[in-house]
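Hello,

Our lab assistant flagged a job as stuck in the queue for most of the afternoon. It eventually completed. Since we weren't sure the result was trustworthy after the delay, we are filing this so someone can double-check. Below is the sequence as submitted and the structure that was eventually returned. Let us know if re-running is recommended.
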Amino acid sequence: MVPFIVIMDKHVPVKTAFKMSMAMMKGNRKHAVGLDLSFIGWYLLSAITFGLSDLFYTVAYRELTRAELFRVLRTKAIEDQIDGFEYLVDDMLDSNPDGLDHYPAKSRYDEARIVNYVRSMEPNRHYTLINLILCFFIFSCIGWCWEVAIHIVRDGVFVNRGVNWGPWLPIYGAGGVMIIIFLRRFSKLPGVLMALTFVLCGVVEYFTSWFLEVTKGMKWWDYSDHFMNLNGRICLEGLLTFALAGLLFVYIAGPGLDNWLNKFDNRVKIPVAICLCAIFGADLVYSHFYPNTGKGITAGMVPGTEDEFISG
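-- returned structure --
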């Protein structure tokens, strides 16, 4: 909040501005992180349009959203009379301009909308079992779409990624649900959350790779040519990506999906979950005997087996 505080009063001492910012953000850091993560789609749009979306819309939208966050926090800081709150007082800003009587009502509406949004996206919440099951399948399908899209963009071909034949990658679903279940309690500490996600995903990915290689005699991924890899099963680049994704799971994807799923009655969700579990179970059994392999899917065979290496 320091840039906004300085804009309010250019005479505010530097140390005071930082102390005020810390006081205003106390208890709100996780919400600010969640707000920033909500712009991920806009960043992707910017990359696709080579920055044109930033030029015409995104930057203004993003900065105005942050300014609205500051306005809400500023009001509370004045009410709580934090140290230095006098630098935030502005009669012109708080006055009701002649002929603009609708502005205060609009302002209160925007403030209430932000407060309600923040409350609805509380990350450290209770997730029902049925919602966690459905989240597993949603995350699994998103992971499958992500890896398929990478191959389409990079190689220009469709590759049905994964051990299973269905459009899902269970490692993404299991990882996402485990992050939500075990790590959401650290939502107030984004740095700790990232570190724990890094470790958790590393353990899950390494064990999964080892298990598949031992039971199937194949590798479905190999990071041997990546920087700082461990036996080709995990690498620094991938784990850092998962660590950042962990923030998305806890602050945005988890609460957002939970809110969306809560709109549906259990009479709808339970049959859907049962059908998905049945299809997924059948896929697991079939894939156990006839795993999905081939070019772009498997990276190689265990040395010494009948076919030591398959082109990947």
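-- support follow-up --
The delay was a queue issue, not a problem with the job. The result is valid. Residues 99-103, 300-312 have pLDDT under 50 and may be disordered. The CA atoms of residues 30 and 189 lie 7 Å apart.
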